[in-house]
Specification:
- The chain has 14 helices and 22 strands.
- With 451 residues, it is α/β, with parallel strands linked by helices.
- It folds into four domains: 119 residues, Rossmann fold (3-Layer(aba) Sandwich); 94 residues, 2-Layer Sandwich (Alpha-Beta Plaits), CATH 3.30.70; 116 residues, Rossmann fold, CATH 3.40.50.720; 95 residues, 2-Layer Sandwich (Alpha-Beta Plaits).
- It is 32% helix and 25% strand.
- It is globular, with a radius of gyration of 23 Å.
- The strands form four sheets. A six-stranded parallel beta sheet has the order 3-2-1-4-5-6, with helices on both faces. It has a six-stranded parallel beta sheet with strand order 14-13-12-15-16-17, with helices on both faces.
Length: 451
């Protein structure tokens, strides 16, 4: 597909890297000529220097022959206007980044009245992901499929974990649980395991199961943690605001935000009446102890500086806080793994993954195409959800008779809210949701997973 990206900031460049790597025809528009030059030299793309809302600039970029227009400039209003201009040129799919909390309740209006195909708020999306692991702190990261019918949880095995030394085929017999280990990261290697794969200490496992089964499993292997209650958030920016708002609306949490900027604290105090707002430096040791860091269940570092978030999270962990979360955008996840970080999130990666998932879906709208997409382990693994339509070519064929690409696994089938871990005689039926885990094959519809 031909895709125009307006705005080449953090999310824009991440998206350029992913989409050009999937062999899409990408054109980027940005006012910064030096940035355009660097991106054109780094990726197989075209670049236009100019105002993304200008009809002339969009025509120069080839908007009249493009399939998707994505507006990711720093200004919400410019993004919305750019999409409206693109629609006048006849483009069908328009995506706008809209970050201002004032617009958070207007996304339906943007879609239904203005005709935007999708709005993306990276900070809100990141806050949702963080809220998941605070609600279920036993996991490093959590993703959900089929409207929450099944979860994909990431855990790390310590040396004393009873799974160490066990083959996957033994897990159900040993622990009497219905879960599936669908991917394993061991040091820098990532693989789709088989029944005879033996688990080792320090492995990271990616497990699919309904939430109740995950709870049972984690209790049996001794890593279950109860829901967090006392939470400290360092940094009251957009992610901190969205996270505190979501948690306070759910209830059951004691939330404290430490924010340096006094004017921002005033805004947060008015916007979040159930959250305690502290004007101070969340990286200062004395401030942290004054605010009761030693009594916390969870510590979340969300400042604009990666290094501050990492260091303060490591300090919190050293005090015995079992759940620490850091927002990162520039630091490599490999570095974080080497220093033993618990959970880390990148708003730019979360936003880019959502957009790529949408583009995969519209590329095959008449087939059983991607409904949900998550990239794991620096994009080395993809977990995809497909909804099965009548166009699916293998309906009713037993799984044992299907020839599936190497390093690809049918993790589970959701049928009428029932989760099925497929065995050889099971089949895929019209109306099913099917979860696939693969070593980044860039599948666009479920028929592509078969040889």
């Amino acid at each position: 597909m031909k895709i125009i990206i307006a705005g080449a900031g953090k999310v824009g460049e991440t998206l350029i890297e992913q989409l050009s790597g999937e062999n899409h025809n990408v054109v980027v528009i940005d006012k910064n000529a030096k940035l355009i030059e660097r991106l054109v030299n780094s990726y197989d793309i075209l670049g236009i220097c100019g105002n993304a809302a200008s009809y002339g600039v969009q025509m120069e970029a080839g908007v009249n022959s493009a399939d998707v227009f994505i507006a990711l400039t720093q200004t919400d209003e410019l993004n919305i206007l750019s999409c409206l201009v693109a629609k006048t040129a006849g483009i069908k799919h328009t995506i706008a980044r809209v970050r201002n909390p004032d617009y958070s309740k207007q996304f339906g209006f943007f879609k239904n009245e203005l005709g935007l195909s999708m709005t993306i708020n990276p900070e809100y999306s990141a806050a949702r992901e963080i809220a998941k692991v605070l609600h279920f702190p036993s996991a490093i990261n959590m993703e959900s499929f089929a409207k929450g019918a099944v979860d994909l949880a990431e855990i790390k095995l310590k040396h004393d974990n009873p799974l160490c030394g066990s083959a996957l085929s033994e897990i159900q017999r040993k622990f009497n649980v219905n879960v599936l280990v669908c991917a394993v990261q061991r040091n820098s290697d990532v693989f789709i395991p088989r029944g005879n794969s033996v688990l080792e200490a320090n492995d990271k496992l990616y497990i699919t199961a309904p939430r109740k089964e995950l709870v049972r499993f984690m209790k049996k292997i001794g890593i279950y943690r109860h829901k967090t209650k006392n939470i400290m958030i360092i940094g009251g920016g957009k992610v901190g605001y969205y996270l505190a708002k979501q948690l306070s609306e759910n209830g059951g949490y004691n939330i404290k935000i430490i924010e340096k900027d006094f004017a921002r604290c005033e805004f947060l105090s008015e916007a979040l009446p159930d959250v305690q707002i502290i004007n101070g430096d969340g990286t200062d040791r004395d401030t942290l102890f004054e605010q009761g860091i030693e009594k916390l269940d969870a510590f979340v570092a969300l400042t604009s500086i990666d290094e501050e978030n990492i260091i303060s999270s490591m300090y919190a962990s050293s005090l015995g806080i079992t759940k620490t979360v850091a927002k990162i955008n520039r630091v490599s996840s490999k570095v974080l793994q080497s220093i033993g970080m618990d959970s880390e999130f990148s708003s730019k990666l979360i936003a880019a993954d959502r957009i790529v998932g949408y583009i995969r879906a519209i590329g095959n709208s008449d087939e059983s195409s991607v409904q949900t997409l998550y990239k794991l382990v620096d994009g080395k693994i993809e977990a995809l959800e497909f909804f099965i339509t009548a166009e699916f070519e293998k309906t009713g064929t037993p799984i044992k008779d299907l020839k599936i690409h190497k390093d690809t696994l049918i993790a589970c089938i959701i049928r009428n809210a029932r989760v099925i871990f497929p065995r050889g005689d099971d089949t895929i039926q019209t109306g099913d949701s099917v979860i696939i885990v693969s070593k980044s094959k860039q599948f666009r519809n479920i028929n592509e997973i078969f040889r």
